[in-house]
Amino acid sequence: MTTEAPQRYFATPALYDLMYATTLADIPFHVELARHARGRALEVGCGNGRVLIPCLEAGAEVDGIDRDETMLEDARRKLAARGLRAQLTCDDMRGFILPHRYALVAIPFSTFLHNLTQQDQLATLYACREHLEPGGRLVLVMFSPDPRRLLEHDGAARVILDHPNPAAPGTVRVLDALLSDPVEQVSRVRRTVELLDASGAKTETYVMEFGMRWIWPAEMELLLHAAGFRRIAAEGRTGYRDGFQPKRAVEARDVMVWTAWKD
Amino acid sequence: MRLRPRVRPTTAVAPPRSRESLVVRSPYEDPELYDLLFDGYREDLEFYLAHARAAGGPVLDLACGSGRLLLPMLEAGVDVEGLDVESEMLAALTRKARERGLEPVLHPGDMRSLDLPRRYALIVCAFNTLVHNLTPEDWIATLRGCREHLAPGGSLLFDVQTMTPAALCDPDGVPIQEFDLPTADAAVTLRVFDTRRKDPVGQIQRSRVEVQELDAAGEVLDTHRFEATMRWVQKNELVLMLTLAGFERWEIGSGFAGEPLGPDSLQLVVRAWGEGGSA
Known about the structure:
Chain A is of the alpha/beta class and 263 residues long.
């Protein structure tokens, strides 16, 4: 049914926190969603809690699933340190089985794009739909493909993040080199994370690889339709570096937010 | 020297108030203009003709127009019917067929609401016609109609434009000299300019097309202008639409010689089967 995929996420929890220490703009959006869900919420791909923990801190009842047990262990440690509780389950988004039905299922931060085939995409949507209670909604957040950015998929490394190291003096620099198959819409990402000390000298380098499959807006609507959703809405948001602000319509290079309701 | 009497004197219109006022009728409403522009296009003829001959049952030419493919199919003895939404195109096709002693079965109608009595071994929709479906809903309605009009084991065969990231990044609003077309009159060449604007979210391309008739010395004899709006498709998206329309199997390549789909392909050539389909 599903493609072979590594059991581990591409980054360790510590590295993930270093990479995304300054990626915060989408968190208030998810907190509001979870707080206003009329019941229990589920975050698919919760990792070590970047989005999940602020939602719990805001008083929302949120469960999480992730395929990487190491990330979940880190999330559990963080929850315990903050006196928070959540049901965290190690499972695959393409076929998870949980005992609860949810008012909200959310897949933030382009996690859905880790589905590298149409079969995987649909399997994930079916699993999410199965776990919604009637009237519940699925919210998918992902980047909208920008043709200009796709042209940069030439294998050359480009800096995508460069910010102060939250754990030590110095900076964290993240470089991505992408090669893409535009027919299958799959990018192979070779990511380098460099830690630099206060003088700018490189002290540590980590290299990791993962795949992403971009989705055209019209295609995303068809995927939701094919997975059995009837009521579907799309919204555009500015990027994570630009405040994640709502826009009137989805544009190329934006973040797109898809909402689909279970009848 | 001119191929035919002047079709639409674009220079006779009042000075333009807006860009739209320059626009003449689309070639789909104007068989003479259509034939002038496109009747000489033959690249796909052998491909569709071979499939029609091999169909082993009735064939439907969806959006048959003025008969660019349907007439050669009829002449080859294929049991082919045509459907088109433009009655003037069908009238032109009927005239041309009668000149050759042929009486084709033609259905006026919209491809999105196909409702014909027969079931076909093959439905063809050539020459990028499906891009006139401007929404996924229209696409699926058309594909579903085709699916429902296939005989057991029958197939739908079409070519359609797709987009690469590079083509999406081509500058908008700039006239691009597309190609020169020969005409039946060796002394006259058609030079086609296309000014495009693309909406990558809606997958809509708006074209302002200018066609110049050139004589052997390169002098412009006449100019035709029209607008066209089309919606391109992406391969993965098309697979979803075929699935939603009830197709069970498909082959997607590029080009009429069985070329595989590649990163630079701007055309999809698709054959799709309903249940009971076979290669």
